[in-house]
Amino acid sequence: MCPPHPLGAHRQCWCPSCSSLFTSVPLSPRCDKEMWLLLVALGLAQELADANPHGELSHENPEQFMNISEKIRFQGYPSEEYDVLTDDGYILSVNRIPHGRGNTGDSGSRSPVLIVHGFSLDGGDWVDNLPDSSLGFILADKGYDVWIGNCRGNSWSQKHLNLSVDQEEFWDFSFHEMAVYDVPAMVNFILQHTGQEKLFYIGHAQGNSLGFIAFSSMPHLAEKINLFFALAPLYTFHHVKGPVLKLIIFGTKQLTLVGRNERAILAKTCSNTLIAEVCENEIFLIGGYNKNLNVVGVSASLGHSDTHAISSFPELSLDKWKQISPKNIEDMTVPTALWSGGQDWVNPPPETQRLLPRITNIIHHEHFPDWNHFDHHWGKDAPQRMYGQIVNLMDKN
């Protein structure tokens, strides 16, 4: 199987699952890597399928191909969806769960909370599991006004006032633009819509990076945040682990992801009983290994996607990531609670140790040695070990 290679290059590649050569003709750097990653997953899956050619599809999750609003309503919760315009013309999809099931009280009196997803993910990850295991549903049932953000470029935020996703200009942005445009747009929209003065901010990985940049560089925005909850608090990429991330970040000059169509193929493939565990292991190759992930959430996530190409230019190399990481993070005074994982390959413990001394106002930090990068929203024990603490801290503030 061929690794990513320059645009326009033709190579004879060996396909291990089909024992034959094929000619690789990439259409673009982004398409090339998306196809390569897809072939890795499908190649492993096919080997198991070949071992049991009569394997039948089973345990198909009905939420695999639902959008976020449909997932919320499927579980019996009220759902609202809004388009939020950024100052640079991007149109972001923001989902809202105004209250819990059967609780129709005045949502205007409820404290709003904004949850922002990580890189390669989207807002649906917070409602993928059953209501007693999904942070979005738990917060709604506890009396909070839940808002779920989708940053520019993910599956649900691919609109712009003047640009199309087919234009290179649409993807000409970095994490910096997400922080200085997307985060303020979502925060200000929510506060204006609810009439509240402040909200709680919960970020996962990239969602934390955006918060660190936004709240350290825009004091007027930081004043609108009650508490900042940083889950898998990504800040730098000095110690990234795992074969997939190292290949993507160090082997190429761009960060690209598998698109919606490819993820749909993976979802159907991974619904095969024998292949499901292989697909789960594909996730471990990115975020670190454990056996704590809730397969309901994982399978629901595979059906939706994040075509977050962010840019096809060299500015998203590792060096560029270091440049756009917030340099004056000490200026952020927002009270911050953090949860990190010992098996997290995206944000391993040395990264967290680099970050902690730079945060001025830490009110809580807990490290789970057995957690990987995805336990924060798909972990079976996340409600008991972390979500309860989040609710307690919010209640106190």
From TrEMBL:
Pfam families reported for this sequence: Abhydro_lipase, Hydrolase_4
Domain called Partial AB-hydrolase lipase: residue spans: 68-129
Keywords: Glycoprotein, Hydrolase, Lipid degradation, Lipid metabolism, Signal
Segments forming domain Serine aminopeptidase S33: 135-361
GO biological process: lipid catabolic process
Highest taxon above the source species: Eukaryota
Family matches, as InterPro entries: AB_hydrolase_fold, AB_hydrolase_lipase, Hydrolase_4, Lipase_euk
MF term (GO), any: hydrolase activity, acting on ester bonds
Signal peptide annotation: none
Family named by the database record: Belongs to the AB hydrolase superfamily. Lipase family.
Protein's UniProt name: Lipase
Annotated organism of origin: Coturnix japonica
